[in-house]
Amino acid sequence: MFKTSLTALVMGATALTSTAALAQDWRDEVPVFRIGLLGGENEADRLRDHACQKAYLEERLGVPVELFPASDYAGVMQGLLAGQLEFAGLGSAGYAGIYLQEEDAVEPLYTTMQIDGSLGYYAVMYTRADSGITTLEEMEGHSLAWADPNSTSGYLVPLAELRQMGIEPEAYFSETGFGGGHEQAVIAVLNEQYDAGVTWTSGVGDINQGFSRGNLRSMVDNGLLDMNDIQIIWQSNLITNGPRVIRSDLPQELKDQVMGAMMQLQNHDRDCFDAINDGESMGYWPISHSFYEPIINMRRQLAGER
After folding, report:
1. Helices (H) then strands (E): counts for the chain
2. What is the pTM of this model?
3. Residue from 195, 190, 123 nearest 157 by CA
4. How many Cβ atoms from other residues are within 10 Å of residue 246's Cβ?
5. Structure confidence by residue, pLDDT tens digits, 278-306
6. 168, 265 in Cβ contact below 8 A?
7. Confidence class of residue 271 from pLDDT cuts 50, 70 and 90?
């Protein structure tokens, strides 16, 4: 009996030592966990909203976590491709852009489920409420601000769907340009630099609050927008919610710990969960590469046209 117990004790100790060694191994390889933050709102707001995520992951991973806000989407994409970031939230088009450059660069882990249970959101075109422009047809001959060339809702999907309707933006609008991000494009429209812009929204919830989630909701919450100052004149078909991705070459133990921690965030700190998701949502949902194949094909087609 004693011999058997001693053997079990030694085997258990060996297993614990091996587990500890594995844990130490990935921390030696990844001494700091770097998170990329997409452009779209000002840097101070992004850092403030994600400070809770930084603290949450530091506690659970046991390594320092650093936040890297980029001025545009391309900055985060290139950071992941260059191995300068470990993790980031991307739009579907951003993920597609990385995949088309290097198929094995990142892995999608999970996405956000809206309050109605859907895994998608919408691109919307908006104008100033006092502009007199109330329909897409009335936008002919007026100027349009895209958000970012790597944005799904702020460029890729509106461009594709307008073309499907027989509208070639360069000919239909008097001018098109990039606002430098979703928030910046809205501000440009409010300041009458453009007649309209495109951005993203859940499309569900209270419109006066900017809906349940999205850029409009984030701007309302930050005191940067009154929904009475704009009107929505066009809405896209449902778009797949963007993924949180992690670099594929990282240790599997680290990937599993990040996935496990983030899937529990809403239960541990609901305010933090809402802050980093631009409003209210139901929770996170695991996804895989196949979820984004339609957007990848759309982006591949656009690249071929260029």
Report:
1. 12, 12
2. 0.85
3. 123
4. 22
5. 899 999 999 999 999 999 999 999 888 76
6. no
7. very high
CATH homologous superfamily for 30-114+243-305? Periplasmic binding protein-like II (3.40.190.10)
CATH architecture under which domain 120-240 falls: 3-Layer(aba) Sandwich (3.40)
Backbone angles phi, psi at 223, to 5 degrees: 75, 20
Q: What are the strands, taking DSSP E only, across the chain?
A: 33-37, 65-69, 87-89, 106-113, 120-128, 143-146, 175-178, 196-201, 230-235, 239-240, 244-247, 283-286
The pLDDT tens digits for 32-89 are 999 999 976 688 989 999 999 999 999 999 999 999 999 899 999 999 999 999 999 9
Q: How confident is the model at residue 186 (pLDDT cuts 50, 70, 90)?
A: very high
Containing H/E element for 110?
Answer: strand 106-113
Q: Which amino acid is at 161?
A: E
* 149 C-beta neighbours (distance < 10 Å), count: 16
Is beta strand 106-113 parallel, antiparallel or unpaired with respect to 65-69?
unpaired
Q: Which two tokens stand for residue 94?
A: 């951003």
